[in-house]
């Protein structure tokens, strides 16, 4: 590959619309993989970014980039073609009230994955989205976060890598709210520990918001989602969880969505 192509991803860039193929193996000048920049900027997931680059749907300062592994400076402007934007608009996000007995992800130990509940018949009659159900909406539909077999409530299933990153990316700060029914005694010290001071798997947990809803139910608000986190937190302070329901993710609430029913995330809704 001629060296001039490597120089063309640095400013100044070639004329708008010119196709560029870059084989960049160094990063001494502060350039970062374009797919990483796209993910950090919320344009799409890194996997989607690679697919867009291969299709020629990505531009850096107006210059088309088609070579996987291409890099750019964080200050350079990355834009998507109309084809990429149309592809994103066609992707759906589904909100499901997961019942007990279903796993969030792939089938395991004889339990069905929650995505099998997404059928035309199980759509909530009160869904206000104008979206028509299409079997194509099931392709690539994946959970953005976990909810264990014994838990119920709001589960997000999405085809959109941007939403997945927003909800479960390493830098996600989206709150998740749960109502947790418990057995056992909890004093003020134990409640304080639930809010901040516990560790799981050798790592300190992020501060949480935990308070009593009534005499046997706690309200948890978390900004992280370790495996069976709430159940394990409760065990550490002498409580046994007898019921767990997620009722909110960010600004999106479970509301009156019945168990086993689902609806589309509406265009105006934001997490």
In words, what does this structure look like?
With 271 residues, the chain is α+β, with helices and mostly antiparallel strands. The protein folds into three domains: 3-88, RNA-binding S4 domain (Structural Genomics Hypothetical 15.5 Kd Protein In mrcA-pckA Intergenic Region, Chain A), CATH 3.10.290; 91-167 and 255-271, Pseudouridine synthase I, catalytic domain, N-terminal subdomain (Alpha-Beta Plaits), CATH 3.30.70.580; 175-249, Alpha-Beta Plaits, CATH 3.30.70. Helices cover 20% and strands 27% of the residues. It starts with a helix and ends in a 7-residue tail after the last strand.
List the helices and strands and how they pair.
Elements: H1 3-7, E1 19-20, E2 32-33, H2 34-40, H3 46-55, E3 58-60, E4 63-65, E5 71-72, E6 78-80, H4 82-89, E7 93-98, E8 102-103, E9 112-113, E10 142-143, E11 152-158, H5 161-168, E12 176-183, H6 188-195, E13 199-200, E14 203-204, E15 209-214, E16 217-222, H7 229-236, E17 240-249, E18 252-253, E19 262-264
Parallel strand pairs: 1-4, 8-9, 11-17
Antiparallel strand pairs: 2-5, 3-4, 3-6, 7-11, 7-19, 10-11, 12-16, 12-17, 13-14, 15-16, 17-18
Helix pairs in contact: 2-3
